[in-house]
Amino acid sequence: MERLVVVRPKHPFGPNTCISSPFSILPSSLSEFNGTRLSSSIQNRRKAWQQKGALQVTASSAKKILIMGGTRFIGVFLSRLLVKEGHQVTLFTRGKAPITQQLPGESDQEYSSFSSKILHLKGDRKDFEFVKSSLSAQGFDVVYDINGREAVEVEPIIDALPKLEQYIYCSSAGVYLKSDLLPHFETDAVDPKSRHKGKLETESLLESRGVNWTSIRPVYIYGPLNYNPVEEWFFHRLKAGRPIPVPNSGVQITQLGHVKDLAKAFVKVLANEKAIKQIYNISGSKYVTFDGLARACAKAAGFPEPEIIHFNPKEFDFGKKKAFPFRDQHFFASIEKATSELGWSPEFDLISGLADSYNLDFGRGTYRKEPDFSTDDMILNENLVLQS
């Protein structure tokens, strides 16, 4: 049997309390994560709109929203924005992690207000029969699918919610076919053999089922609570005073987008007529080289400029370990479509975004993975031999 529960602020990590009463609506004028005022596309007064054809979304001031996932990274920040906008938010998770957690810099009052409004539906999304029965029983206006990887995981959700207004999907810029012509645009060729092919198949499924869908394709995401070793990889080495090993020339160009900017983009597409059946690249406004990223991490965190060691990955056998957290190629995408159509733009530049990540996470002594310098030592030892 499904359980719909609300997390009480007095016991955020304790037993959940079942509820049956509706939410009170949270005013949308609360402060943003970093203390600045939230600028959102969702206004209190909205009008119903209809696309030419069968799709229709009623852009009411409050929606019943389901987030698939939501307790690790992107959803932590997205759910806060949605609650502040007055929406009723339910997280669908397996319940293995606390449903809410107080963020660094978040006041007790802000956290209490947020956590008291979050509902939880406990289950495994791969249990398709449970998904269909529980979601059809609850009913939702909008689904944010943050952790979906395969199309087969999405079908039960669509089946369970025939009156769904919008399906907003977190895809990846990793679906694009490698090209000599950059940046990637949303109309570029995709790679059906990429490790993100499940994302592509999901987008195709949503289109074939006639759902009002929107897909967001982030490049590399960074920020507080990041569980991928993006900025954390550099911070570990900077803190230990170690050189930074960078593959090949170090002038490979890549792109990072802050998780809070990504969360705002997800809100911008909600009930947005322009976003019907559209794909948007979301990331930072500037690109950066690998060497430049190492220096940016040092500057943002207050470390001296690092020593950078270049190496040829083909000369080493690292086994299953990764010697560098980024794909060894140019990889960046245009965000022009999102900025022009959605009125969205990233608030964080790279230095301020890395500083936000460091000050609210790694700099407080919290990180996801312990440092592993074994591949670094292989590279550094080989480098010393060559120099001698």
UniProtKB/TrEMBL annotation:
Domain of life: Eukaryota
Protein name as it appears in the record: Uncharacterized protein
Protein source organism: Persea americana
